[in-house]
Amino acid sequence: MKKGGLLALSLAIATVALIVIGCVWPVQAALPFIIQKPLLTSSSTPEAAVQVLGQEIQAHNWAKAYEAFANKAQFTEPEFELDLTGYTTNLRTYSTLDHFKAWPLHASADEADIRLELDWATVVGTSVMTRDLHVVRTGDHWNVNWPLTKQPIVPPQVIPVNYLRWDVIYRGAGDDWGAQDVNAPSVRIIDMHPVQRADGVVVMGELLNDDVVPAYVSMSAILQAKDKSPIAKEEAFDKISHVLLPKQITPFLIQFPDVRLSQVDSIDMKPFSILVPASADPVIAIDNEKFNPSPNASLTGQLINQSGQVVNVAHVLGTLYDKSGQLVWVVDQYVDSALLPQTPVAFNIQIPDDIAKKVSTERTVVATFSFGGLL
Amino acid sequence: MKKSEPLESWERPIPLSLLFMVALAVHLPLLLMKLPLQSYDTNFHIFFSSHYVDHWFDPWNTKWFAGFSQATYPPMPHYWIAVLSRIMGLDLAYMAVQMIAILLLVVGVYRFSLLWVRPRAASIAALASIFLGSESFLIYNAGQLPTTTAAPLYLIALPFLYEWLRHGHGRPFIKATVLFIAAAAGHHLTLLFGSFIFALPVVGLALLDRRDGESTSASLILGRAIAIVSAVSVIIGVVLLPFWLSLLHHPIDQTTIPHASRANFILSPEWGLNYFILPYGALILAVPFIFIRGSSETRLRPLLFGFWVTFILGLGGTTPLGHWLLGHAFEVLTMERFSYWAGLLALPFVGLLSVKLIDRFRFWAVGSLAVMAVWTCAMGVAWGTYRITNARDVNVNVVADWLNRGGHDQYRYFTLGFGNSISRLAVMTDASSVDGEWYTGRLLPELTRYGGASLTQAKYFGTAGLESLRAIMMHADKYGLKWIFSNDPYYDPLLSLAGWRPVDYLDNKTITVWAKDGVPPAMPVNVAQRPPRWQGLIWGTLPFGSSILAILVFLIPERRRKQTRAEYPMSEDEVETQRVAS
Amino acid sequence: MKAILTLLAASLLLAKLQAAWAQEETLRLPKSIEAGSAFLIEHSGGGEGTLYIVGPSQVLKRDVKAEGAVYFPARSLYDAGHYNVIFTQASGTKSGSFDVAPISAPDKLSFFANPSRLPIGVKHGITGAVYVFDAYGNLITAPTPVSFELSSPSGGIQKDRATTSIGRAWTEMDSTSQQGSGKFVAQVGELKSERIIRQVPGDPCTLKMNAQQAGQQVQLQTEPVRDCSGNAIPDGTIVTFTETYAGGQSTVDVPLKRDVAEVKLPLHSGAKFTVASGVVLGNQIGWQK
Predict the structure, then answer these.
(1) Could you give the CA distance from residue C101 to residue C56 in angstroms, rounded to a whole number?
(2) Domain definitions of chain C by residue range
(3) Which residue of A237, C110, C149, C200 is most buried, as measured by CB atoms within 10 A?
(4) Long-range contact list for B554-561, CB < 8 A, 24+ apart?
(5) Which fold has domain C108-200?
(6) What sign does the dihedral C213-C214-C219-C224 (CA atoms) show?
(7) B270: β partners
(8) Would strands A215-224 and A266-275 be described as parallel, antiparallel, or unpaired?
(9) Contact flag B501-A216 (C-beta cutoff 8 Å)
(10) Do A34 and B268 touch (CB under 8 A)?
(11) Are strands C262-266 and C217-222 parallel, antiparallel or unpaired?
């Protein structure tokens, strides 16, 4: 072979070799763009069948995933899709499946039980969904029985809504400087308590709307050193219920990462409130609320929407107290199912074990969001 | 007896004037239609230019990231847009500069190709540059004006480099140096990587040619190479001093932002289409020829090696070579520019191949090549229509109007779901945003820590993007951040439950204005990072001045030397004709 | 003849005195004028010049051609304050000053009443401050009598009188024991300014609920919730019902509706029901199935 031909061949081989290496061991930078395509076309083991299912869900290949179910006669493909993305718009509707895990619970020659954990990336953080799958052998491959959660049926009805709504007329921009304006609602911190945690200082407490009008509240705190110089300023962000009806109480929790409590001499709490239009609707009842002690301490219960309006996103804030009634921790969880009228939706909030030991009682409030009910 | 007339027209190089006319015929209507405005980065460059219109000597721009330095991006094309905008407005000024870059590319490719092939093939290479898929892709989809401006300057400089290396005269040394500096003032990465990708093959060529004609020793050539590299480095060090100081003070240590040009194009074929098929187009068919011809001709081997390395780098994460050669820089660079450079390096081969095909198949070859060229160019232009790169439906005019009235611009803002329109919005409003599109310029820790790109597209960066969004929202008071314009209901639950309130609807309720109550008016942030006045003077003077100097120097007539066949040993299948330009 | 000579001598003397006076007092200014009134500035000494009048927020300029008076019509100067007058001529500059005083007749009141809303029975809880202005918006600094009157929802009236000092006067009033909106009026002469003060109920005084079985649930209903003065707590106020039972608890935040709050909670044997509103606790009911 000529020298030039050899060179061309060498370059061609090197090119192919580099491409093969790149495909077999993709570089880190390429990983975010590789959608896990089902590489296993035949589900030769129960685990492989569940893996394929996970990959199909991640790729939104609902049809392919549905086709592989052993119990597909029991429901339709759209029902399966809605089971995962929500029959009613909720946190998961717009989310993507970040990753999934599967592990066997039980296996025999012809059937197996496998737990599938789906971690959805939602706008408010990761939402974890766990399903226990029964996998059955069909010939030389395995098929999943999908445990479909049926859409709760709300009977057609008219629910008269006569809850209060507050509207506000502020002074106009062109009004004289002496013109009267409406005062901001009066709010009061009824409890405040800083604690040191491994990742920094946490300031928590409770805020009361002491007024007769609804308040839009936020809470920030400034940690101050002995010379009154500010160490850090942070706010409660979503660890608070921002709309408080008259005499309503919300817990709040403010995190100061990388700060030691020993550095702090005083804390300047800055509650902020403003009068906003608000509605007393919807009313959310918290049923069967229960503190489950360690191990795996948790706060569980069910949310029941007592109104006619659908709540798309609910945020549960739990306040935990010790025997003396002292606030010990604030926990929270976003519920990834919409709250339909009169339909219970469970919540389960994990509590750190070291805190769970101190907990005696709890109190829970719910902040809600409904699409289309913005202004 | 020969039928001389038709044969001569086939064999004659295409005149530069005709090439310019073709370039104008193809690209001028598209630019006058302002098609690049739909691309990823065009509005970003217009935004940078808009700042220089009012602040020629102050690279500190408070409209993005609560304040950032534009000295983090070489400014030459931006200053030209700023100058021309006085006559024709920012949009058309951008198009004018882009058109000039296209015309310069014709000259650059022709001059560069002449180093390797005869004028006829070089002129066809120059013609091919007008239809180059990656050029169209960069202009009409990526909007990378600096890259497409710097590369022609670099290509124009390379023959002077060759002349300097071979003959050592002062005039080519000065011309090469000035043009390199102007190229660096346009785009630093072109010079940094162009040194290896474009210049090393030319150095290799000079070494191969050292015994032809005027004999020169290898050590002398290497010495001259070192001399010009030293001179260019020192001068660029001064011309772009604020840029280097900025890089020194704020090294790029941000968490890496994923970019699809670094994807594996086989495992992610949709990105392969975007970053490989589209930029190369019909050029892919020429790759085997490039390998075979480049290997068989000793004189073409440096070009082949340059092409091969660039081609592989342009494949992004398809191969590990980029990761191996560039290290951390691979995580920071976008790799589509390598495909562009590979395309430019391939053009002399394309010229050779075309000559060969035309000589053999005449009209059929011309017709086929024309169809392939037009198809390649057309797909590069039209791709943005099929794959929407921008949130085109966002009406930023109403947002700008809203911000500019009633004292709303006393506070900072950012947008959600606006895509690349945030640059357009920033041009139209005086309000300051905490977001932006020039990630290297970011100083706010909330933006640099997590690996998200712009806040407006936070959801596309998963946990990283959303963490960054939460972090900046948590510190709204600190930055005087009061407004969020949302074009995407995806974010509504977070905004509502984190204490933001919808206060207005815009554009038929497609955009919701969210506000946070109790936020103090925006105060200057990162003031300590603001470049001092003397840096502003350098920034406003030297990079732009270097381009003026390049124009003047390029007009200096070249020393006429007797050309011999030995000096430019050509391929045997090439027909020797006279050079039409130098 | 002697008389004529005497008269002539006297005239000459007078003319001499006038000339001497004119050389010393080239500008004759009013000491003080009322805002918006017309006035004259006389100058003597002859010659052309420019007259400037510079005040706190107004500047006037007049070109003066010859000796005499410069007339400024009404509304030329309307901002109260101290004004400097400068007359520049080729031969030199003369200056002087005068005051523009507010019109003594009040035209407008700025009445600050705070708060717009407060609980009942707060001593000195309501403050009112009045600033008295003339027709041109000048603060009238001369002492001016002001009367304040707060009519409470029950019909009672609180009155106070004050005299402005440096243009302002203030008062404090108590909120009464009955909720509702009260009119708070400040009056100067015939001028009146009115504000609405809303007196709202205080915390619930006694919070008492009743329970009765409704199928598999217990219906809890408060008695009408009132404050210690007997005012009904406003609708929408949150009342929290809590059911505690073995191993669990149920909670509902219910807004008051027509003075009462009611809710249905699941029936659990041995359950304990409590009610609270804000920081006020109500009664507790134990339930045995």
Answers:
(1) 12
(2) 26-101, 108-200, 204-286
(3) A237
(4) B554/B156, B554/B175, B554/B179, B556/B171, B556/B175, B558/B171, B558/B172, B558/B582, B559/B169, B559/B171, B561/B167
(5) Immunoglobulin-like (2.60.40)
(6) negative
(7) none
(8) antiparallel
(9) yes
(10) yes
(11) antiparallel
- B-chain CB neighbours of A18 within 8 Å are 312, 319-321
Instruction: Provide, as residue numbers in chain B, all residues whose Cβ is less than 8 Å from the Cβ of A218.
Output: 499, 516-518
Query: Are A199 and A257 within 8 A, CB to CB?
Result: yes
Interface predicted TM-score of the whole assembly (ipTM), two decimals: 0.86
Q: Which residue type, as a one-letter code, is found at position B54?
A: D
In angstroms, the CA A204 to CA A328 distance is: 8
Whether C5 shows a pLDDT value over 60: the answer reads no
Q: Which residues of C touch A (CB under 8 A)?
A: 109-117, 131, 193, 195-196, 200-201, 203, 233-239, 247-255, 257, 263, 265-266, 277-279
Asked if C43 and C67 touch (Cβ cutoff 8 Å), the reply is yes
Domains of chain A from N-terminus onward: 34-145 (3.10.450.100), 180-276 (2.60.40.10), 279-374 (2.60.40.10)
pLDDT digits (tens, 9 = 90+) for A208-231: 999 989 999 999 999 999 998 999
Give C225's DSSP letter: P
Q: Which tens digit of pLDDT belongs to each residue from A285-299?
A: 888 888 888 888 999
Give residue-wise pLDDT tens across range A300-322. Answer: 999 999 888 889 999 999 999 98
Task: List all residues 6 or more positions away from B507 whose beta carbon is below 8 Å from its beta carbon.
Answer: B395, B398, B399
**Predicted confidence (pLDDT) at residue A375 exceeds the cutoff of 50:** no
Q: What is the pTM of this model?
A: 0.83
Residue of B nearest to A33 (CA): B263
Residues in chain A with CB shorter than 8 Å from the CB of B267 are 23, 26, 30, 33-34
Query: What's the CATH class of domain C204-286?
Result: mainly beta
Q: Specify the length of chain C in residues.
A: 289
Smallest CA-to-CA distance from B470 within A254, A123, A253, A32 is with: A123
Which residue, among B70, B73, B37, has the nearest Cα to B52 in the 3D structure?
B70
3-state secondary structure of A268: strand
Walk across the sheet containing B481-486 and list its strands. B412-416, B481-486, B511-515, B501-506
- Is the Cβ–Cβ distance between C155 and C161 less than 8 Å? no
Using only C-alpha atoms, chain C has a radius of gyration, in whole angstroms, of 37
Instruction: Map tokens 């976003």 to a residue.
Output: A334
**The two three-digit tokens of residue A140, written as one number:** 């030389």
Percent of chain B with pLDDT over 90: 68
> What is the C-alpha to C-alpha distance for residues C213 and C224, in angstroms, rounded to an integer?
20
